[in-house]
Fold this protein.
Amino acid sequence: MISAKRIAVQLLPPFLTDLLRRILRPQPAGRSGSIVQEIRNVMQPAAPEWEAVPETDWIATDGWLHPSIVDTQVAKWPQFAESIKRPHPLGVAHEALPGAPVNVSSHNIIMTFGYVLGRAIASRAGGPVSILDWGGGIGHYALMARELYPEASIRYTICELQPLVEAGRKLVADAGFTADGDAALSGSYDLLYASSSLQYVRELYPLLARMTESGSRWIMICRMPFVDVADDFVVVQRPQRYGYDTEYTGWFLNRDKFVGFMRKHGYRLDREFLNDERPAVAKAPEQCSYRGFLFERSGARVDA
């Protein structure tokens, strides 16, 4: 005799079939769930990966401090380190899943970093070139700098959250790591580099002003989302597909406002860069494009 369950599985629509299976499956000892909750779990649509939200919804806890961030980055480190060794083509992002092939978008980002680092090295009159990598994770760009310019003397410092600092110190012994932003910005650098990090700071413009006050010759802000018409707005990202079991908020910035701010604080735009990242953001007043901007301190060519 064919059971009622088998008939239901064969005749019901797929989403109801899934619901029935979940309701009738055996529950682990000590665990029970209501049918109402099961229905909610099936019927509720998944939240979008990217979604514009009011600034008042800024996520002030967990976010980038979630332990899955450092755990995932450390787990992916061996593949990343191997992927950038000579003579491999440089085209695997440090966020890529294991086994991901090289791609032009990641190659573009790495070569952009190489160009900017080369400008800093070329404009340094003797001695090691000093780099401050703001939000540099566990040291991905520090390792790339060594691979891109093995003959150059580079003093590389990374300012990051404490869990990432602790992990990075074990992986990149010849780079400096600090979680003290005030101490990091008390000095001046040949290049102050921030890749996909400033947008996650709620008080972004005050931080940017402090960076300009450091007097560093070059400031490179890259892999940030910009819009051309709308004013700055806040977006939440749910990055589970990268292995991060968290969510965080960040800014989408108006391009002209951002560039004008840097100009008013003594930095001229030397070159603009394009990134092939265009996430589809629900409820956004305008869709973004990821870009990078290399700024040089006004008068630096005269001072050098």
